[in-house]
Amino acid sequence: MPKLLTILASPRGEYSISRALAAEFTAAWRDKHKEGEVIERDLFQTELPFVDLPWIAGAYTPVEDHSPAVAEAISISNELIAELFAADYILIATPMYNFSTPAILKAYIDHIVRFNLTFSASYEGLLKGKTCTVIIASGGVYTAGAFMESWDRETSYLKMILGFIGISDVDFIHAGGSNDVAQGKVKQQDLVASFIPSVIAAVE
Ligand SMILES: Cc1cc2nc3c(=O)[nH]c(=O)nc-3n(C[C@H](O)[C@H](O)[C@H](O)COP(=O)(O)O)c2cc1C
């Protein structure tokens, strides 16, 4: 039974462009994989502490040496990594903040990039065979040829870090232009609708 893991990183609920497009993607994926299972990882419903000293101890010492505090600190990381290994398809739906990933998504990444679990000592990514789609919602437009294109540090970073842990089959959908919604020039549903064909086309 194929599994889709959807990772949601916008705090904006019903106003979120990335969440609306994630819902479209998920509906199209369910249509294609009738027997499939969808696991939703909403980062705003997840306690995601920053990496701290007990976490580092947990990541770099054998399990049998973990104190209760260390075991507790590393448990969310273990859970998130197990979820990724169990998934065949991954969807990341995220805003762009300050030309990069929102801090909550970076906090998630810090939990899932783990020595000997998701990358090896020889820097081989260990999460093989996954198909990943990334939807990036932004106020500006960063598609090829747009004047802000070179300011986008989110696409290159996500591509690199996902590849580092072995997820190399990644499609990006740039859902830019929500500044026009904020300024009342375009309706939210019209902006969302304009990206639905590319979202549906990305479903494998
Ligand atoms: C703190 C913050 C930083 C932002 N930084 C950028 C930015 O660097 N570039 C950009 O185009 N839009 C930026 N935006 C706008 C968001 O990317 C835009 O509202 C997007 O639609 C958010 O995704 P969502 O609709 O899924 O919540 C920023 C918004 C916030 C709240």
Any overview of this molecule?
The protein has helices at residues 17-32, 53-60, 68-86, 103-112, 154-164, 178-182, 188-202; strands at residues 3-8, 37-42, 89-95, 131-138, 169-176. The protein is α/β, with parallel strands linked by helices and 204 residues long. It has a single domain, classed as Rossmann fold (3-Layer(aba) Sandwich). The protein has a five-stranded parallel sheet, sandwiched between helices. The relative contact order is 0.17. The mean pLDDT is 97. Flavin mononucleotide (FMN) binds at residues 10, 12, 16-19, 95-99, 137-140, 178.
Query: What kind of sheet is the major sheet?
Result: 5 strands, parallel
Shape: globular
Helix content: 40-55%
Q: State the total count of DSSP E strands.
A: 5
Order of helices and strands: EHEHHEHEHEHH
- Mean of pLDDT: 97
The name of the CATH topology is Rossmann fold
Structural class: alpha/beta
Strand ordering within the main sheet: 2-1-3-4-5
Measure the end-to-end span. Answer: 14 Å
CATH architecture type: 3-Layer(aba) Sandwich
Task: Give Rg in angstroms.
Answer: 18 Å
Secondary-structure blueprint:
Blueprint: E1 3-8, H1 17-32, E2 37-42, H2 53-60, H3 68-86, E3 89-95, H4 103-112, E4 131-138, H5 154-164, E5 169-176, H6 178-182, H7 188-202
Parallel strand pairs: 1-2, 1-3, 3-4, 4-5
Helix pairs in contact: 1-7, 2-3
The protein binds flavin mononucleotide.
